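Reproducibility note. Readers wishing to regenerate the assembly model reported in the main text can use the exact inputs given here. Chain order matters: entities are listed in the order in which they were concatenated for prediction.
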Amino acid sequence: MQPFTNLARLSLNQATTQRWSLREAIEGCARAGIPAIGIWRDKLAEAGVAAAVRMVRDAGLHVSGVCRGGMFPAATAAERAARIDDNRRAIDEAAALGTDTLVLVSGGLPEGSRDIDGAREHVGEAIGRLVDHATASGVRMAIEPLHPMFCSDRCVVATLGQALALAAPYPASAVGVCVDTYHLWWDDTVWDQLRAHPDRIAAFQLADWITPLPAGVLTGRGLPGTGCVDLARFARAVADAGYRGWTEVEVFNDQEWARPGAEVLADVLEGLPS
Amino acid sequence: MQPFTNLARLSLNQATTQRWSLREAIEGCARAGIPAIGIWRDKLAEAGVAAAVRMVRDAGLHVSGVCRGGMFPAATAAERAARIDDNRRAIDEAAALGTDTLVLVSGGLPEGSRDIDGAREHVGEAIGRLVDHATASGVRMAIEPLHPMFCSDRCVVATLGQALALAAPYPASAVGVCVDTYHLWWDDTVWDQLRAHPDRIAAFQLADWITPLPAGVLTGRGLPGTGCVDLARFARAVADAGYRGWTEVEVFNDQEWARPGAEVLADVLEGLPS
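Running the prediction on these inputs yields the following structure tokens for the assembly.
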């Protein structure tokens, strides 16, 4: 199996070309022959939802997903409620863009908290409060485990096992998981989990692991093929589990962001696993 | 249970006071009333093994463990054999210092490799080749899982589960695991694993998780009490599992290293979980 010998299911997550506006990213995908784009809400807000819908449609692009909902834990009930409301808007935006996927990054520990179990429980409750609205909107929530180095300040969901456990109470059609190679490559338990829960794979994202990590560790990912992750193994694993959705390339990297976007896209296509 | 209301089982891992020589660290422990020290091999080499043995004995200190063996994966058979030999010397040094514990940090992926499973297998084989010498020397190897952010370049053993699996083929008296709060705090599976494998807990190390992480991520740990890790929960978990060994404070932090060691030790004692 060679999942990337054609581009038919490839998507550019626009974080990879961070300095491009939404319009530039859409045009860049069209020029590169990439049929889909993963859209970030900050870029969407800049463009305006109605304008974004038109741009995507005019370019004939698919939207693989919206990044991101989540960020649920908070110190006060009022703040937690506000975050739920914001996630309802994220669902609406995904529906408007014609995608069936909203990626959720759960959020980190509330300031001063050491209660990691409690934070994860709160994430599960928040997702539960969104299930009806998401289902009615035709949008599936994809819980994304981030690498454990983000556990305190960005995402208390640090493993695929934790994401699957949070999704378990809800129908797989409403709540799935996002499998990102950068976040999961070190975890030997993912292979059995993917086999055991094929119906939960809602999104698949590619980035490579390179070192040294930069300060803050957010923007040190590698383009596919530049690091030590066996990306082809992940591609086979999700395909073998029956996943037929998009493969998003999502790379946060200061050096790549400083380059012309078209060159970055060319390198993305060059580095994909065959 | 309040594991730290007295200092009787506390040890200073000398990495916490990185700029102190072995002699200075030994004198610092004595002044602070800390009864044990975890010794690093680079500091030991500076002091000389025979001199170190005398210094420790003269100060009436215990040696909680030696850091570190391991660093097994390598690209060539000759290099791998050299690393096994070096680990035999580490075992000899631990025995000379009168400690029963050698902490193993497995090493990262060989240059250019994407074969994480293969690297972990190699770690297991290397440990197997050391078991007889360690047992004959009265030294137990403690496989330390490092945080997954170190998986590529420092330690392919990234979870307690992986460490336990590597230890499993060998007697618990010969091969155990090192439980370090900094490396494991994000993992919800550790609590059941500690309960299920109480006889494998060979070492217990404390550091706290703080952000933002510095470039390279090695030297960003927090003194106990300064971060988001529920240290008391870990202390209870290992105690409940029957662990009665040392609690080493091991903090890699550039800012702490720039401070006078005695002040750092005072803050260590202040921040311990009660």
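We highlight two features of this model. Chain B touches chain A through 34 residues (CB under 8 Å). The radius of gyration of chain B is 17 Å.
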